Each structure stands twice: as structure tokens, then as C-alpha cells.
Amino acid sequence: MITLTNVRKSYGDEVTIGPVDLQIPTGGITALVGPNGAGKSTLLTMIGRLMGMDQGAIEIAGFDVASTASKDLAKIVSILRQENHFITRLTVRQLVGFGRFPYSKGRLTQHCEDTISKAIDFLELTDLEHRYLDQLSGGQRQRAYVAMVLCQETDHVLLDEPLNNLDMKHSVQMMRHLKRAATELGRTIIVVLHDINFAGQYADHICAVKDGRVVEFGTPAVIMTDEVLTRVFDTDVQVIDGPNGALAVYY
Amino acid sequence: MAEATIARPAAERRTPPARRRTSGALPTPRARRRYWIVLAILIVLATGFAFGLLAWDNPLPVGSDGFWRIAQMRATSVLVMAIVAVCQATATVSFQTATNNRIITPSIMGFESLYIAIQTSAIYFLGVTGLVALTGLPQFVLQVAVMVGLSLLLYGWLLSGRYGNLQIMLLIGIIIGGGLGSISTFMQRLLTPSDFDVLTARLFGSVSNADPDYFPVAIPLCVVASVALWLRSRRLNVLTLGREATINLGLNHKSEIMKVLFLVSLLMATSTALVGPMTFLGFLVATLAYQFAGSADHRHIFPVAVLTGFVVLAGAYFIMKNVFYAQGVVSIIIELVGGSVFLFVILRKGRL
Ligand SMILES: Nc1ncnc2c1ncn2[C@@H]1O[C@H](COP(=O)(O)OP(=O)(O)OP(=O)(O)O)[C@@H](O)[C@H]1O
Ligand SMILES: [Mg+2]
Prior knowledge:
The complex is a heterodimer. Chain A is of the alpha/beta class.
């Protein structure tokens, strides 16, 4: 369970995110949706302690994010940012191997190697594991980053737009991977998504953010309605019955 | 039947060969072999040049008393080169990692401008006697302390503040360096030509600037700081992933950076106070080391960088001394080559 209590963050005088009160249940996928600039990344980076908050408290599985030692939090929560650039040339396997750092401090044991192999196989990167990241397509690279955070074996996984750069097929695959990670590996996954239909299809909970506030929280069935989506996205949205559940049409 | 034959190659491709899957920085046997060959070549070159500097052109017969006495005198400069190579190579590699920037040199933080300002003001205010007063062990220690102290103030103030960020810190370092440089230039204009002449000799980085009296302080400083950095290799590896990934993996990014920058400032101050400015040596060496090593792991990079540094320094001195009879210009040549590599890298990468 992740609990945000009265969390606030101001960027200068103009932009304020929050106050936000939110409880994200354990298990399953929770999708953060909302327009550009709504504050999704800000919330996610604060939960992942990459950025401090001005006010309020965040607890992950009972651990206060601000006061728990970072090295202990690294075994509870992992976060992947919207954009990643590394100055070193790494292979997929070396990158994924960094996910073991909280446990191994850089001295990889056989158990670590096995976990790394598992994460790589899980995201179907086995054939690419010795390729350098700059020799991969954007989508393959995105999968490598996700493999790295999965390899960290944390119960809570925060992903900022993991479908960035992915085509139709790989977006679907990525969401299936995440769904499997949630069900088979028992992870709690919080993911920022832009395509509301992906959220509706794969998420267990949807959290809608707008102007720095959480405006809706509920199951896809509750969120996927004309009224709610139109209000959240400031766009006319019609929800129709698709072959696999509700579909939002907005163009 | 047909299906089975089609399926088999795909299945074989998918199940990796029985080789053990490892994540080391040198994943293939080829990469490992290459690394060890590079290291071996560098060691041979380094010992070759060191031996050459000690024994080449020694007028006395090998093994005689006089031979050893001359070799001993020359050993001082070889030792100085070793210290400078360790300091500059270790400091530059670590600094580039801490700032997440591969085309940067720690001298950007104003160590050299500070050194130049100290030397210039000594001669400006006290005349040539001022420069003489600057030589000696206590003065050496004082210079190191001032450089480390000022850079710590800068890092501490800028990184702990509300707007604490590396880019701002670097920018302010450059501005302070530039300011100190202008003040020094201004004072140099007002010097008498003879004072200026004396000063110029001190302002080119040169192994002959070093005084063996400084060794009892310089060597321990260099050893302790570089060993401390080498022991942090695994953490430095994480730092190359950038601030966010470092925090995600459970390291306190700010305190890691502060520790690294402190050790870097110790090394840079030691090297600068010992031999004077060497702006591009570290950059040249770090860039070459990344090319040579074929690994991004600091445990592999550090030895290659240090050996490369020594080979470049000792090789340049050896060639300049025995081929061109112009050992005074060694640092100028190194800076020229380093500067050219710097430009080349920037132009090729097309970005900072
Ligand atoms: N470093 C910053 N300085 C100032 N303002 C910022 C900063 N980062 C974000 N903001 C502002 O905070 C608000 C929320 O930004 P955030 O990145 O959280 O949005 P988001 O919901 O992730 O948007 P997107 O869907 O485009 O990724 C935006 O209005 C943005 O302009
Ligand atoms: Mg965002």
C-alpha cells in the first residue's frame, strides 16, 4: 500500500502540485492518467523519493519515504523515469545487472546472475542481452530499462510512460509483461499511461490527475465513462462497447 | 513434419548455448583478452620509458657507483611523473563520472587559476623573493590546503543549497577561474620583465618544478586519495547512470558526489602544487583510457588511465630529451596534443 497524505510540491510561484491525498492498494496495476503537465511525473518522482515534497508525507508499505534510509527503500520501491540517458556504453545485461546493486553493492553473486537472467528472459531480451543499448531500437531499450527495475525485485514498481517509443505490438506486449509481473511476481505496479484505452484494458485501478490534483480514483469500470473522461481530459470523449470491454473514442 | 523442421532452428536460437551467462564489464573472452593485452602493452611501455629515463644516455658504465648516483637523481623526475599520472588520471576519470560528463576536466574548477593567482601575487607583492618564499614544504602544504579549502567551500555551498545543482557549480567554478585569471593577467602586466620571466617558468606545468622535499606530503596524499577513489569504483559505476538511477539504487547521490569531489580536489591540488598547471593531460588520458579499455567499469578504467598517463608523460619527456633535446617544452606538447584531442572529441560528438 502506498499512502500519500496532504502532499504538496510547488515549482516557483505559479505551479503547485497538490495537496494530494491518495491510497494506492497493494497488488495489481494502477494507472496514472491525465493531461500533459497535470503532475503525474511529479507525483511519481516524489513517491520514488527522487524529489522532495514541500509538505505532507508519503508512506510505502509502512515506510516513510522521507525518513527511511535510501538503501532500504531501494529494496522496497524502484522507479523508472520518463527519460533515461547514460554516459557509459552498457550492454543490456550490464544495465539490468545494476538492478542488483541494492543487494550486492556491485559484487554480483550467482544468485544475482540468475535473477538478472530471469528478468532478461521475462522481457524477452535473451537474444539481445550482450547488445549495447545504443544498438537497440527505442522500444527494445525501453524494455531493457523495465528489466532493470524488475531485476531490483522490489514489491513496488513505478514506471513513467513505459509505452514511450513503443509501437502497437510492443505496447501491448509491454502491458502484458507488466500484467504478468503483477500477477505472477506479485508486484504492485504504478504506471503513467497516456492512452486511456490501455489503462482501461490492463489496469486494475485508474487514478486521474488534473491541474495537480487527483480528481478521480477507481476501477476502470468507474473511470471509463463519457462524463469522467471528458472532464479529466478536457476533450469530448465517447465510451463505446468494444469487443474486450469499454473503448474511449476521442477523435 | 515440416513444422518441426522449421521450428527447430528458431528454438535453438532462442535457448542460448550452454555458456554461463555473466554480467561482467568484459562480457566476452575477446573483450577480456583485449583488455589484458592493452594493460600488458601499457605496462611494458611504462617500464620501458621509466627505464629509459633512468638509464639512457648515462655517461657512466652500467652498474658503476656513478651510474647509480645519476640514475638516483633522475629517479626523482620519474617519481614525480608517476605521482602526476596517478593524480591527474584518477581525478579526471572520477570527476567526469561525478559530473556525468565525458568531456570535462577538473581544472575547470579553478585549481589552476588559483595556482597561477597565488604564484603571480607572490611575485607581484614580494618580488622574486616572494616566489622563493613560496617554495618549501610548509608552503606546499599551505597551497594544497588553500586549493582544497576553496573548492570544498564552493562544492559545499553550491551543492547543499536549495538550488544546489552540478551545472551551476561548474559554471560558477568557471567564472571564478576566469576572474582569478584576469586578476593574474593584470598583475603580470605590471611586473618588470625579469620578474615576469621568472614567473613564466613557474606557470608552465613542468616536472622540474617539483621538489623532492614535497614527497613526504605529496605521495601520501596522492596514494590515500586515489586508493579511496579506487575502492569506490563500484559506487562510481552507479554514479555514471545519473542522479535519478543512483538514488533509485539506494545511494545518497549528493553525499557520494561530495565525497568524490573532495577526493578529486585533493588529487588536483597535489598535482598542481607539485608541478603546476596541466589542463589537458587528465582529459587526454581519460579519453584514451575509455578507448583502450573497452569497458566502462571503473575497476578496469583506473589502471588503464593511470598507466596511459604515465606513458604519455614519460614518453613525451623521453622523446623530447633524447631526440629533440628540448625537455622544457614537454608540457606544451602534451597540452597541444591534449587540446587537439579535446577539440576533436567535441567536434566528432557535436555536443558537450
Ligand atoms: N523542474 C520544474 N520546474 C518548474 N516547473 C516544473 C518542473 N517540472 C515540472 N514542472 C511543472 O509542473 C507541472 C507538472 O509537471 P509533470 O512533469 O509532473 O507533468 P506530467 O503530468 O508528467 O506531464 P506529461 O504528461 O507531459 O509528462 C507542469 O505544469 C510543469 O510545467
Ligand atoms: Mg510526465
